[in-house]
Write a structure and sequence with these properties.
The complex is a heterodimer of chains A (about 400) and B (about 200). With about 400 residues, chain A is of the alpha+beta class. Chain A has helices at about 1-10, 40-50, 50-60, 65-90, 130-140, 180-185, 185-195, 200-220, 245-250, 290-305, 325-340, 345-355, 365-375, and strands at about 15, 30-35, 100-105, 110-115, 145-150, 150-160, 165-170, 230-235, 240-245, 260-270, 270-280. Helices cover about 40% and strands about 20% of the residues of chain A. Chain B is mainly alpha-helical and about 200 residues long. Classes of the chains: A alpha+beta (about 400), B mainly alpha (about 200).
């Protein structure tokens, strides 16, 4: 029964799942979890991981067992993804019961951290953990997406508030009746016919999953109609698909006119899955290095307005030794930068490198880093991926 | 098949659902929700296609709310994910089996799925649409058989008719409702009052 102790504390009953996101380019800090079977009796799992409100919902669900079980598996992977994201990036260790998944009015799952959170083991007695939990609750709302099919559940969580994610999963085990006539337009069916002769069902499901992932990332599902999400291109080698919005979907998201989303699809054993990230906000113009530095100085001025420095903040000022930054301050700053530029950047690697080399970072260096990662060529190495 | 009774439609639809979800038809009642039976998005597509084939109808591609929002424009029926009073009024008219009490207070868009995916709602929708699918040819009385696309053809004299799609009928209903029953409150022009 020691397994249960682990289950509640740091354990990761779910498998950490590491799809290869490389084709999507720079990928923000994310955590992905997958579960193919119940680690224990479902009712026991419900007691262990659900908050009181969620338990009440679980008990009142009138659905068939399959549905109730998938809901529970979904909660389990979602909580685990959020926990491992927060533990890895902020050293904030929460209980599954302290993370509530509450759908917004359109059904998108939102992460809610319980108000009376007492993080496990982090900074005993310092109150810092509680402070960090509050910061996550109020400022760093992670984006989350959950999918389940045929007894398997997956979840993907990303820390950047400016980024939205969508994930979907479909099983290939039972042969679907031909759903192409409803799910795809004539153009899409023509595209499908060019993709694969012998694995048509798989590619049809990949295209379907791509639509679902886009609907989830945007937050309104496929409510605008299945054909309002149009697969314009698909690349068999990489699994990448380009999905554009039409008709009702454009009414919902007028800012996405002529701006398609890139979705990554793949097959793993008997499942097809898809994932996409979506940067909120307007089209970005590439700023000059001078503009980046000005923005950083101005942002620093805002963040440290009441910190009483003897000297004004200069490009040469060092964040940690001179300006008294702590790691959370750095995370808040980095998050603000990514949000401002609507671009995920590998800040975690930068901060980890600085920690290892025991050196400091000047605002000027930070500006150079941002300059390098803004609209530059796509990173292909492991630098931006920390999916474990 | 315009003359099917509600219980005939129900029985036939329950068979379709049971087969697609691999469950026993006895688990299905008019008040049951398809998602509670374990239906996922692709199952719903499968059920939709099978229903269309068996009843010779075309179910709407999107919910009545989506169609109505396209006619009304944004912010009138739904705002920030919640139904407005205007939106509740429209839906209660179009989906009358909805419990009016459940529409008191805040109604989130995500919770509407609960009503749209009720078996009884589908049965009523199927029955409504089936009225537009003739059982026999109006010209010669021969049996109608499915033809290409949205069409049916008389097996005897070959006369073709075009079926009405659920989407089109929903849109027509919404347009009529908009013209006859929607009375936006006319507000005093803002600029005029602001100047004074």
């Amino acid at each position: 029964m020691t397994a249960f102790g682990n289950l509640v504390h740091d354990s990761y009953v779910t498998q950490a799942w590491a799809p290869d996101w490389r084709p999507l380019g720079p990928w923000p800090e994310s955590a992905c979890c997958r579960l193919d079977a119940f680690p224990c009796e479902p009712s026991v799992l419900a007691e262990l991981i659900l908050s009181p409100d969620e338990q009440a919902h679980w008990r009142s669900m009138r659905a068939v067992e399959k549905r109730r079980h998938e809901w529970l598996l979904g909660r389990c992977v979602a909580k685990q993804a959020v926990r491992s994201l927060l533990a890895r990036n902020l050293d904030l260790r929460l209980l599954p019961t302290e993370i509530e998944i509450v759908p917004d009015p359109y059904g998108r799952p939102l992460v809610s951290i319980a108000p009376e959170t007492t993080p496990l083991r982090s900074w005993p007695g310092s109150g810092l953990g509680t402070f960090r939990a509050a910061t996550v609750r109020e400022r760093l709302q992670p984006s989350l997406s959950i999918a389940h099919s045929d007894g398997t559940a997956v979840a993907l969580a990303v820390l950047d508030p400016g980024v939205r994610v969508g994930i979907d999963l479909e099983s290939l085990t039972h042969h679907r009746q031909d759903f192409e006539a409803i799910a795809f337009s004539p153009d899409e069916r023509r595209l499908l016919a060019t993709l694969s002769m012998d694995r048509r069902q798989e590619w049809a499901l990949r295209m379907w999953c791509a639509k679902e992932a886009v609907g989830k990332a945007l937050g309104r599902g496929l409510s605008a109609g299945l054909l309002a999400f149009h697969i314009a291109r698909a690349d068999v080698a990489s699994g990448m698909m380009e999905v554009g919005l039409r008709d009702g979907a454009l009414d919902q998201f007028p800012q996405r006119r002529n701006r398609s989303l890139i979705v990554y699809t793949a097959r793993e054993s008997n499942f097809v899955f898809s994932a996409t990230i979506y940067l909120q906000g307007a089209v970005r113009m590439r700023p000059s290095r001078r503009e980046i530095l000005d923005y950083l100085l101005q942002k620093m001025g805002e963040l440290t307005a009441d910190w009483d420095y003897p000297d004004p903040v200069r490009p040469e000022s060092l964040l940690f030794t001179e300006l008294g930054f702590e790691s959370l301050d750095a995370v808040v700053l980095c998050t603000a930068i990514q949000e401002h530029y609507q671009t995920p950047m590998p800040f975690a690697e930068l901060l980890a490198e600085i920690g290892q080399q025991q050196r400091d970072l000047s605002i000027k260096e930070l500006a150079d880093f941002v300059d390098t990662h803004l609209g530059g060529p796509a990173e292909t190495g492991g630098a931006t991926r920390r999916v474990q | 098949m315009p003359n099917m009774t509600e219980s005939e439609v129900f029985d036939k639809f329950a068979q379709i659902v049971a087969k697609s979800l691999r469950i026993d038809a006895s688990q299905i009642a008019p008040a049951t929700h398809l998602t509670d039976l374990g239906a996922e998005s692709l199952d719903l597509i499968e059920i939709t296609m099978e229903t269309e084939t068996q009843f010779h109808i075309f179910l709407p591609d999107k919910s009545i709310l989506e169609t109505a929002v396209e006619v009304f424009g944004p912010g009138i029926l739904e705002k920030d994910g919640y139904l407005t009073e205007e939106g509740k009024r429209l839906l209660l008219r179009r989906v009358p089996e909805t419990d009016a009490q459940a529409f008191e207070g805040e109604v989130a868009v995500k919770d509407l799925q609960h009503y749209f995916l009720r078996v009884g709602t589908w049965v009523r929708m199927i029955q409504g649409l089936a009225q537009y699918t003739p059982g026999e040819c109006q010209a010669c009385g021969g049996a109608m058989v499915p033809s290409m696309g949205f069409r049916m053809k008389c097996g005897k004299c070959g006369q073709e008719i075009t079926l009405r799609s659920g989407e089109e009928l929903n849109r027509e209903w919404v347009r009529e409702y908009y013209d006859k029953e929607y009375h936006p409150q006319t507000e005093a022009p803002v600029s005029a009052t602001a100047v004074q």
